[in-house]
Please model this.
Amino acid sequence: MRDDQVAVLSLSALAAALVVLVAWILARRRRSPEERARARRRVLSTEGRLAEAYVTDIEDHKIAYQYEIAGVVYDSSQDVEIFRERIPGDPSLIIGPAYVKYSARNPYESILIAEDWSGLRSSKIING
Model:
């Protein structure tokens, strides 16, 4: 093969790779915030590590909770508006011990409840 043929083939391969990369980036950007949140909850509920937590407050549709990993205390909250049918109206039923699933790579990333899992005490949640 001549040098000019090699150069054309190399540039063609690079262009094809860039087209694939741009298509992938555009496809990822089209996901709505709700879809990204659902995907995050799915990953945490299936791959996350389990830890004991303590629900400290519930206000509007946010549950505040605290948990400890390797001596570090994390304060977090989760918007649970989409799970409102599964959460009792009386906040005193939620406050107290619970379980959390968190990311081993980033322990601050955690959830109390997802579509297929709940760390809230089973007697306190309404099964959907």
Remarks:
- The longest strand covers residues 49-59.
- The helical segments are 3-29, 33-47.
